[in-house]
């Protein structure tokens, strides 16, 4: 059975032209329908990634491709795990702590879900 590439393989960075400036970056991602069975998350759901960049920034086009890799993903199925995974992958990519905050509408339920995760870059072996 062929190995499925991880979504993180799609995530790219670009150099920060001014790492000497105190900068805060926020990416507000409009989430696609990730689950073909429940059709969740509902339209209008977002995930915000927030970080103070060092030498690297998340590249915008790869961030869209990265999100698309989670559509009907065979392992990352619940929103909590999704937000945790995205936060960790982003922190590993840019090499600084990243906060991921999701505001999720759910079809078939009379509720929303908010999930916030703070991730630090994984130690390199």
Question: In a few lines, what is going on in this structure?
Answer:
The protein is α+β, with helices and mostly antiparallel strands and 125 residues long.
Order of helices and strands: EEEEHHEE
CATH class: Alpha Beta
Which structural category do the helix and sheet elements fall into?
alpha+beta
| Annotation, overall tally of beta strands | 6
What is the CA-CA span between the terminal residues? 28 Å
Low-confidence stretches: none
Annotated CATH topology: GTP Cyclohydrolase I, domain 2
Protein architecture, described:
20% of the residues lie in helices and 27% in strands. It has helices spanning 60-68, 79-94, and strands at residues 13-15, 25-30, 46-51, 56-58, 98-105, 112-119. It is built from 2 helices and 6 strands. The chain has a single domain (7-110), classed as GTP Cyclohydrolase I, domain 2, CATH 3.30.1130.10.
